[in-house]
Specification:
Elements: H1 7-24, E1 31-37, H2 44-59, E2 64-69, H3 77-86, E3 91-94, H4 118-124, H5 131-142, E4 145-155, E5 158-160, E6 175-178, H6 182-190, E7 194-197, H7 203-209, E8 214-215, H8 219-224, E9 233-236, E10 241-249, H9 250-255, H10 258-292, E11 296-299, H11 302-318, H12 320-323, H13 325-338
Parallel strand pairs: 1-2, 1-3, 6-7, 6-8, 9-11
Antiparallel strand pairs: 3-10, 4-10, 5-8, 5-9
Amino acid sequence: MFTNFRPTKIITLLGVIGVALSVAAPVHAATKLRLGHVFAINSPVDQASQDFAKLVKERTKGDIEITVFPNSQIGGDESLARDLARGSLDFAFINPGSLSGLDPLLDIHYLPYIVTNFDEADKIFYNPKGVLQTTLRETMAKHRMHPLSFFELEFRAVTNSKRAVEKPADLTGLKLRVPGSAGIRDFFIAAGAQAVAMPFPELFTALQQGTVDGQDNGASITYNSRLFEAQKYMTETNHVYAMGTVAASQRTWAKLSDEQKKIIQDSADEVTSNEIAVNRKAHATYMEKIAEGGVQITKLSPEAMLEFRKVADGVWSKLEPIYGKDRVEALRAEVKALKK
């Protein structure tokens, strides 16, 4: 029965199988990383995050795979930032203006009326050596986050369900949700509104239920997050230009090779540059769709805009103890230089 049994044949066969398996097995598994953000699916920021993940995978030849968790699926901005600091999250497209709970310096760029148009924003907000980026980079680094690049959120507007806002006095008594920003909060308080700090993921429900009357995001977020569905009025106050940051966890960053770091940095720079262009082209479309949704749009006259800016004048001085007098004066000098 066992006359044909040959141990050497089995050993040879096992050797062949072992060689085959070693050839078929990958040399190394891909590094799988996670990225979170609060922005709506298919919004310009979400598209940028998806493009970022795609470019990194392509350019590392599959060595790094990034899974994107959009639309607050794994938390709001502050939660994402804390996870970056801990190293439990690898990347985030994050709004530093919502992180004043971690450090008050992270919302310095939310001082009201730093700029009033995109040309000024490009020169002040996207200047790597300017006060704003320098402050944000240094402060985020202290909290174990590594800023890669900056992208556009938009000029913020005011929406509400009570009345059209055409002058500062129209804000009196309105309960407005604000991010955790001293600049935005103090601006609305100075105008007579009730500023209610609230995480972004809770905002839509709060608007629906009347917990707050309104909010101050711009056209992109107001449309893509469907906030306009619970609002009747929108005013393009342009009181704050909002800028976001692509950030990595310092723990994750330290584990990467120099080649991987360069690929990730270059990819972040590319997608943020594209996002800014896409976001600006989309603004008019968003405003049209918000109006089609039944929201009354108000555009401020130059005279009305001047009234709002007068309200903001005192906020800068008031917040010098938070941001530092020298830092605020340096920012004033940058802004003043634009006028020359």
